[in-house]
Design a protein that fits this description.
The chain is α/β, with parallel strands linked by helices. The chain is built from 12 helices and 21 strands.
């Protein structure tokens, strides 16, 4: 977890002195390692794309999306998975080939669908019968043929937080596997002159530490593929199995390697398609958190320290809920260190409190820190690369932090810090 680690009592992150970054760019500060991201891409290629033919990876950009991130993904040969018109706009503006874009979302607006059709994105992942009809009409108006996948709910409950579990039948995402619903959707798609039905997609959930949910979902998906071949004489060309591969947030976490998931997934697909007399489809995956989660840290400056004898010690920082809502939303847990006192024994339990006027703005309830913790120390929260910057808000009118990217021990700004003027730039009086 302490990549490149400790020199003279200071935390280094991929070659950069964390305290010096905080002093130079201010806090709160998001720090992202380009080296880590590219290493993940290398692992992904070796474990999946180069190892198994007829495969492609799409980065789930909702985890962390900037123009620079798109540039890196393009250079690494990855596709981009987007879930809104805004994410689609960023990907296009960054120069991503529209054919390398997978457009998701449970409630794509008419404007977003028109945008996707206009750009000729590679795949639109249709989430419902309602969306299918709207898309068909829009494609007809534009005189275009759109390639689609259907997102199905594979009826799988996985061992993760309910807010990031998406494969169960009772879900806002996807088309249920009930015969009458999925068959109607596929019949409409295959009889339309403006829809090209290519395959199916599922996503069982996120931050998973075992592959059992993926394997059960594959069995259900291929059972559907068999029924479609038998009942409608339709052979599925593409199968998108989503992502969800877990990462290390705490020192006690023991996430599995990517190959643990990929090898089991590919073997299960190969086995089940063969046993059911089906052709092996093209396989897509969509890692997001796995690509960027451990590539990021967030830096804060320690402020007020409040000791309540016999209760707890609150250590307040200059950020919190606005730059990381995951603790309030998911009760997410993080590991953190005093970046400028790494040689000091961690012998005091404190609660890390955010600065918002909100009782629930607690970043870490019980964190071991040196007894010498004091105002001005730099707190480094680890594994914040995914769903921190992308979920940030201006609650309490707090400006969003800057994003610094580091490569080969050198840093550069890729997103500037918001100013107070930015907070009112869209106001009209």
């Amino acid at each position: 977890m302490l990549q490149n680690s400790i020199k003279e009592g200071n935390l280094y992150f991929y070659g950069c002195n964390v305290q010096e970054l905080a002093q130079k760019y201010g806090t709160p500060l998001y720090v992202i390692s380009e080296d880590c991201i590219r290493n993940k891409c290398k692992e992904l290629k070796e474990s999946f794309i180069e190892k198994y033919p007829n495969t492609k990876a799409f980065y789930a950009s909702k985890a962390f999306l900037t123009l620079e991130m798109c540039k890196i993904m393009k250079e690494e040969g990855m596709g981009i998975d987007v879930v809104s018109g805004g994410e689609l706009f960023v990907a296009i503006r960054a120069g991503i080939d529209p054919k390398d874009i997978m457009f998701h979302g449970n409630n794509k607006t008419t404007a977003e669908l028109k945008m996707a059709i206009e750009y000729s994105v590679g795949r639109i992942v249709v989430d419902s019968l309602d969306e299918l009809q709207v898309l068909d009409d829009l494609a007809n108006e534009a005189n275009k043929v759109v390639d689609i996948l259907f997102r199905i709910t594979p009826n799988i409950d996985c061992n993760t937080h309910k807010y990031i579990s998406t494969g169960q039948k009772d879900s806002k995402f996807g088309i249920p596997l009930d015969d009458e619903i999925i068959k109607e959707a596929i019949t409409i798609a295959t009889t339309s002159t403006n829809i090209n039905f290519r395959g199916i997609h599922f996503h069982v959930g996120s931050q998973l530490f075992d592959n059992s949910s993926h394997l059960k979902a594959i069995e259900n998906a291929i059972r559907l593929m068999k029924k479609l071949k038998n009942d409608l004489d339709i052979e599925i060309e593409e199968l998108n199995v989503g992502g969800g591969f877990g990462i290390k947030y705490l020192e006690s976490d023991k996430p599995k390697s990517l190959s643990y998931f990929i090898d089991a997934i590919m073997e299960a697909i190969k086995k089940n398609t063969y046993e059911n007399g089906l052709k092996m489809p093209k396989i897509f995956i969509e890692p997001g958190r796995w690509m960027v989660g451990e590539a990021g840290i967030t830096l804060y400056t320690v402020g007020t320290i409040k000791d309540i004898p016999g209760v707890r010690t609150y250590v307040s920082i200059d950020g919190g809920l606005p730059d990381n809502p995951r603790t309030a939303l998911y009760t997410a847990k993080y590991q953190a260190y005093l970046a400028n006192k790494m040689d000091n024994e961690r012998n005091k339990t404190v609660t890390i409190a955010g600065k918002c006027c909100e009782s629930g703005d607690i970043l870490i309830w019980d964190l071991m820190v040196p007894h010498s913790i004091e105002r001005g120390d730099i707190l480094s929260v680890m594994s914040t690369g995914a769903y921190n910057y992308s979920m940030a808000s201006n609650y309490n009118k707090i400006p969003k932090p800057a994003v610094v990217m580091i490569k080969d021990g050198q840093e550069r700004i890729i997103v500037r810090r918001e100013s107070y003027e930015d907070l009112i730039s869209m106001d009209v009086i």
